Request: fold
Amino acid sequence: MLDKPLLIAGRWRAGSGARSGAVLDPATGEEIGRLSFAETPDLDDALVAARTGFAVWSRMSTLERSRVLNRAAVLLRERTETVARHITREQGKPLAEATGEAASAPEHIEWYAEEGRRAYGRVIPSRIPNARQFVVREPIGPVAAFSPWNFPVSQLVRKIAGALAAGCSIIAKPPEEAPSSCIELARAFQDAGLPDGVLNIVFGVPAEISQYLVASPIIRKISFTGSVPVGKALGALAGAQVKRATMELGGHAPFIVCDDVDLDAVTRLGIGLKFRNAGQVCASPTRFYVQDAVYDRFRDAFVAGARSLEVGAGSDSKSQMGPLANARRLDAMAGFVSDAVEQGARLDTGGRRIGNGGFFFEPTVLSDVPDTARVMSEEPFGPIAALVRVGTVDEAIERANALPFGLAAFAFTRSSARAMRFAGELESGMVSINHFGLAAAETPFGGIKDSGYGSEGGTEGLEAYLATKFVSEVGA
Reply:
């Protein structure tokens, strides 16, 4: 599968050059395969294929497109187990989490399959006699999409399904670290009867591929999920080309705990959200702002819960948290912990690598963390929770909003008045109050400030791939 990972014009093939990259098992650190990379001639072929595929796909009726997407969803659901195994082996998360990711992917396809049939325009009453004025929604054109390794299928399927439902063709560059599940996703669309060239898959050197595709006049829309620095660079390149872009960038989610909550329930949810996928989640909470009256009890319960987590290979059914994605993440976690302790934080549990094989790091809790610690201003993207004592709701909101990030925020209270304040005052593209309510197919997913712009999912996700055309006509 990895020797011919490029899908171009309906054919799976290897890159035209000799370059390749190692795919590692993060539970062992061992190489499990080599991935053939695309070169410039391959990208040129993909661009031509996307242009040709767009001409075919955009002219098909919304009903025909919907049927293809629904067939792809059926096939992907039948292959859930295979996709999940690929995710766990290459990305590392526990198989139960990988199965959940694989099982939810068809829901996104099904949502877009139906929503694509509702790309309505409108009629505008004319002020000119005998004139007819109307608005139509048209697919914007070929799309270039770039998705990360932390949720290889979930991140990619939203981009592919949204583009296809709108009538666009797409060139997708999935993560080189976790390619196999993405290849399986593409095969489901291909086996469902998607015309050649409508979906193209390339792997390679990320900076080379992104810069080449974004600069191409064939590409009319960019969708990127990844880090803030890379997103800003690609956004600037897209802006110079006057191309529409959706940017889902980094986060640093606050988790506010008021003094009136069911502390046991909130603590359990906080542990689950923090250490899910070893904290490698863009919407993962890291800054826990807890009111003084419940701070000590929350800290004690949170630390106990973190210590009780079973860390191990994702393929082990007992594992509750798997490894980090690569060795670089281990070094990053160690740096965050040592800096926080130097700045005066208390290390309550964790803070160290586990063993010498694979990329395992202990679930880590830091308490009484000062704002000067790097973990309070830089996204750790790992299993580190930073606990901070606050006095009032005003203080919690002010500190939650202090960073340039604005992807997700969580708040917990039994007071409807406080809940309304959180909904209105937290500066975030997504706010979840008293539960985890993010990332469903029918809801928008996206941030503000440095966390990006635009949304995937929901009607907003389809909107991103549609252009508005106004027509004013007077009968001859």
Q: What stands out?
A: The CA atoms of residues 320 and 399 lie 31 Å apart. The first strand starts at residue 6 and ends at 8.
